[in-house]
Amino acid sequence: MAGVEGSTVSASYAESSAIEPRADLSKRGRNSRNKGKVWERRLVHLLVEVGVPAHRGLSQTAGATTPDVDAPGLWIECKCGKRPNPRAALAQAARDNPGGRLEVVAIHDDQETPGAGATEWVAMPLSDWLELVSEWHRGRRE
Predict the structure, then answer these.
(1) Among 72, 99, 107, 141, whose Cα sits 20 to 30 Å from the Cα of 27?
(2) pLDDT attached to residue 22
(3) Rounded to whole angstroms, what are the CA distances from 62 to 17, 31, 65, 67, 126?
(4) Which among 72, 75, 80 is positioned nearest to 37, based on CA atoms?
(5) pTM (2 decimals)?
(6) pLDDT tens digits, residue range 72-115?
(7) Smallest Cα–Cα separation from 94: which of 64, 71, 121?
(8) Pairwise CA distance, residues 43 & 9, whole Å
(9) Residue ranges per domain, the chain?
(10) How confident is the model over 114-138, as a mean pLDDT?
(11) Residues 6+ positions from 54 with CB-CB distance below 8 Å
(12) What is the Cα–Cα distance from 131 to 102, expressed in whole angstroms?
């Protein structure tokens, strides 16, 4: 490095310092957050469209006190990525949920365009799913 006595670091290394990769990482992190926000907004729109009052939670600003998407009786965590981990997301929902709400993880494959045949699915604990299916089935018989 020029100007540093006894330095064995080359000038080319100094020119390719970690500043550039950090900027790339920052941009990737921002892009990832933006994709997550888009997926959260889309899910809110889909829920409202079917009659479920929902809105985005303030999880980024309020910490773990709110879900990504807030809807009555549901604690919804949203994950968007190439290979999201539903087990980790369910563990997060179970840890953050104060209780009394069904834990749901809504997942979107970010390699696909939302709504254009994209892979979008939910995961939830089997006990919660059975409760939901049981209520749905009872309602269909009435």
Answers:
(1) 107
(2) 55
(3) 35, 21, 6, 10, 29
(4) 80
(5) 0.71
(6) 999 999 998 888 899 999 999 999 999 889 999 999 887 656 55
(7) 64
(8) 51
(9) 56-142
(10) 85
(11) 43, 44, 47, 48, 69, 70, 71, 76
(12) 9
In one-letter notation, the amino acid at residue 37 is K
Question: Using 50, 70 and 90 to split pLDDT, how confident is the model at 134?
Answer: very high
Map the chain to HEC letters.
CCCCCCCCCCHHHHHCCCHHHHHHHHHHHHHHHHHHHHHHHHHHHHHHHCCCCCEECCHHHHHHHCCCEEECCEEEEEEEECCCCHHHHHHHHHHHCCCCCEEEEEEEECCCCCCCCCCEEEECCHHHHHHHHHHHHHHHHC
The closest of 124, 128, 84 to 107, measured between CA atoms, is 84
